[in-house]
Write a structure and sequence with these properties.
Largest interface: A-B, 70 and 70 residues
Largest sheet of chain A: 10 strands, antiparallel
Oligomer: homodimer
Strand order of the largest sheet of chain A: 3-4-7-9-8-13-14-12-11-10
Structural class of chain A: alpha+beta
Helix content of chain A: 25-40%
Chain lengths: 343, 343
Amino acid sequence: MPELRKDSVTGRWVIISTDRSKRPGDFIRERVVAKGGGFCPFCPGNESKTPPEILAYRPNDKAVHNGEGWNLRVVANKFPALGIEGDLGRQADGMFDKMNGIGAHEVVIETPNHMETLATMPLKRIEDVLWAFRDRILDLKQDRRFKYIMVFKNHGEAAGASLEHPHSQLIALPIVPRRVREEVDNCWHYYDEKERCIFCDIIRQERDTGERVIGENEHFISIAPYASRFPFEMWLLPKVHGSSYENNQSSIYSSLARMLKDTLMRLDVVLDRPAYNFMIHTSPVGEEINDHYHWHIEVIPKLTKVAGFEWGTGFYINPTPPEEAARFLREARLSEFVLTEKK
Amino acid sequence: MPELRKDSVTGRWVIISTDRSKRPGDFIRERVVAKGGGFCPFCPGNESKTPPEILAYRPNDKAVHNGEGWNLRVVANKFPALGIEGDLGRQADGMFDKMNGIGAHEVVIETPNHMETLATMPLKRIEDVLWAFRDRILDLKQDRRFKYIMVFKNHGEAAGASLEHPHSQLIALPIVPRRVREEVDNCWHYYDEKERCIFCDIIRQERDTGERVIGENEHFISIAPYASRFPFEMWLLPKVHGSSYENNQSSIYSSLARMLKDTLMRLDVVLDRPAYNFMIHTSPVGEEINDHYHWHIEVIPKLTKVAGFEWGTGFYINPTPPEEAARFLREARLSEFVLTEKK
């Protein structure tokens, strides 16, 4: 008998197939392995092919702005979804509502090495990526037009990446997206009723039962969420309550780098390098410090197709129970991954 | 400058790229053309390979139940997302909520001809498909456990179809999906404020401006919605207010058959037979007759990938303004389609 489970944070229901549950080998997909070879605007030496640097980390102080010698660069997206110049121009269009597409759309080039991934990069360099997210969020928040800053990564063509070179993206939006607003509001209602953060409660329960826990380090826990929409969906949560990604002590980012690398390595081992998306869920601009919202990262491997039923209902059908996904991920032999990588 | 547009029905915001808008030829995709050849459980002669018939239309009265000679068959899905037997067993799971996955999952085998599509089938047979949807909805509604019945079609592998033979699906759910509830409630709020149906207002405005109208016949209008999530998204709306798909006079279904065929032919001509999903949006069980909700069909061609940004925010980035999509679809030369099909 399949199960209907409710995500306690969003109120979304999910159908979990328990009878004929799909194991990692049952999903047909392409391995995401960089081919390299062609021209890449994100590779060192091609700095002039991207818009100018907004931020760069260079180990050598003598290195030149917009030149080589960087470990990480942030540039404007050459084909931005939103434009940075102008005002919002809110207006009616007959009975409809519109505004100018004002916002920022930036690309974090995570490494000069075209062939690396966040699973294979050295920890210190993953930490750099996390610091770049923080630095850019703090800077973008100074623009009073922006109400939400979304950090996300599309890894692999199937997950929407159009360039192979490791990169992630930031989009600053002039309105708080409805899905974010709903999640934050639901957390507020829970807090209002119980004087507890719902994510803190989830962490407590998941640590008690253990069956959906994937990994844990001093500051973070990774779980397969109870009402996972997608097979092998994972959430990375700070164990101590914090409401925004960008307001944390530095020890948090080094701990997150380890947790992120660990999680993505497990994903690569269990599912043989699948395409995936991850998104940072953090509080909206101006609501950074609160007791009800708990920032976190959601990782969704691209294994199934979203089809008519999902579009029509907002319901998801997940063929792999999160308890099984967590077991596979928890028991992944990371030593194998390291060996394969060294070949 | 891109535009942010709000969907007045759902409140969802969409980013419409206006600068570098994508034309039909800019989308990379595979044509959906049936190959045939292999074993197909939905082809005539293989009736025993599916679960038994729930409904069948046979022109010849002497034809045998579960035998050949049918124009259309409805069978239970062999791999159902939900189980039909049992009670809901609502229960808590620690702080979480779950229930048994009770529901119905049926497949409408639209034609005995493996190589046909809803765009190429004769009108009378498309009408049969629409009647089958109606007949099954009316029957499933008698089961008091079901609160919503979703009719949808996945056409082509990219849109989630696992079998090539033309078919659509029905899923009966024990709860009203949140996305449906929100849409119906928003319509109720609009009605409560204005004493008018929001969709009736949309139809009036779209007919006035004409720029997003694709086609029209005596009972239906097809439009590219103002805040289309996807390039070439289309809505088919009855011009006279009606709140549920299954409660209509027979002239409506023949008119809808013509509108659906016309719409899908235009899609095939303009985008060279893309994969698509369609979903019938109708009132929940027990709320069939009302003044605020206006049933309709949404058609979404599968041209872009939903990636991290969309998953994180619920915002969509649509690279083709609906005014341009509507123009391409309106001006499609259907005569070319008919000629190609005859070859």
